[in-house]
Amino acid sequence: MKGKGYFSLRGKGWTIGFLVIVIAVGVASGCRQFFTTSLAPWAARDPATLIPTVTAANVGDLAQQTADNPDLAAALLDSIAAAIPGASPEDAAALQAAALDVAANASGVTTALYGTLSTIDINNIQNIDQNALLDTISATLAGLDTLQSVAATLADIIPYSGSGTSITLDADFVAAATPEDLVAAAIVLVAAEAQALGDVQNYISSFDPSSASGNAAIAVALVNAAVSSGGTGDLLDTFIDLFNLQ
Fold it and tell me: How far apart are CA 108 and CA 86, in angstroms?
């Protein structure tokens, strides 16, 4: 069942779908108030020295504490990656799931794009000049200096087997993650590939989920997992249509 206010994106291209997704995720992740914690007064120090030993028990609190500070979030993401090899399977899944939201915060991609595009009327987005929108996306992504390193770390953290269209995500990891975080992580991976190509407009215009490879294929798998895990709402309805998922 499609959500209220849903409109079909099929045939309108990846550009429009990408914008709808970013705006929808940005509403959830880009408008947080700063979380007052013991980390806040020390924001000027080396972020890596501020992150305590990360465990499955404290990673949720640490993710909240670093939500509005990309440098701290990036340091936390590195600490999560370091903690996973020595964790139990259950704890590793919890750490891997937490890394999705942390990576979105560290990259700044959803917040940056949401801030740039928040004035767009989402109900009329299919009638807006796509070239102008692509220029806006290109300029915004070009300014995200940590996007590549964050996406690389995130891709290393996400547990999966296979490649290309045959990627299978670890079931415990998917069960521990929320659909919203799976979607946010997919945006980080796709945005990083677009930025790395150096031709963001061409990447977004020609993106084909059915033939994705590398990190883009992981992103498609994350979207599939978000849908399969029972997530609902306009955001996931948009993904179902955009990626031709059932």
Answer: 29
